[in-house]
């Protein structure tokens, strides 16, 4: 949802000086410079995982898509990641949209994180873009009615080996496809305070994981993100043989993101058999009868739930009031608090 920043109280703007001693390792820079087009081609696919608690309760969804695109007529890779769900009955979610070069350099990235607590909401938006040899970053944090703005910029010369929230997801796909993490795989990134910090990747080796009804071998990658203002954050991810993400967890968190079906099973479930029902008189008759039944059933349901019309009417009024550029994103964020609770599903177990 768009935040009316111009109507809020002014907030501070700070500059952050880069530390010259924090640099990506030679091994990390070599990895980025040696990415082949054929490797990127193998990374163009979607990932879908469910988010579950340690008790197996379904909390939401996590989805990543990677595709080739163009930005300002420049060929690039577009990565989009979305997670949404509830924590302690509070709707929350994260959206990342990143335009990347073939060496995972960030051309532009938008990061949005929110949680809707009782009585107020917390929104964090961070946008970074390359402009005139600089990486310009604008961050807006909204807590209830209080808005804080931060704007910083760094020369691109000090950001060699930068890995962001968006490029990190694609980087780990590439690592998983190679099934090896070079020694001293250390990059730079930004922490929550927009300071340059180190982030390192290491190999967790092979493991067994239950996906659906099968036990499969997965390759593990661990990422540690340092912080100037807090403790390091550690992520552990396990990937299938073809690079698909099978499990993702932040160490110390009771929440796990897990794959419920193997990609081959997901594709099989989406297969459709062509059906020319118009040429089958019996089937056409059944279709028309069923159509009338559904219309009557839907009309009855709407009469029993007048709040539906009110909800849609409120949404359209709010949409026309805000007039957002991205209608789909606006609708996603507007309806998220009303998302129905899904029945719990068993969590995946590592062997």
Automatic annotation (TrEMBL):
Stored InterPro entries: CATIP_N, DD_CATIP
Key word Calcium present: no
Chain residue ranges for the region called Disordered: 1-22
Keywords: Cell membrane, Cilium biogenesis/degradation, Cytoplasm, Cytoskeleton, Membrane, Nucleus
Predominant localisation class: membrane
Domain Ciliogenesis-associated TTC17-interacting protein N-terminal residues, every copy: 27-254
Gene Ontology CC terms: cytoskeleton; nucleus; plasma membrane
Pfam family, one: CATIP_N
Any one GO BP annotation for this protein: actin filament polymerization
Highest taxon listed in the record's lineage: Eukaryota
Cell location: Cell membrane; Cytoplasm, Cytoskeleton; Nucleus
Keyword Nucleus: yes
Family of this protein: Belongs to the CATIP family.
Job description of the protein: Plays a role in primary ciliogenesis by modulating actin polymerization.
Protein name as catalogued: Ciliogenesis-associated TTC17-interacting protein
Protein's organism: Channa striata
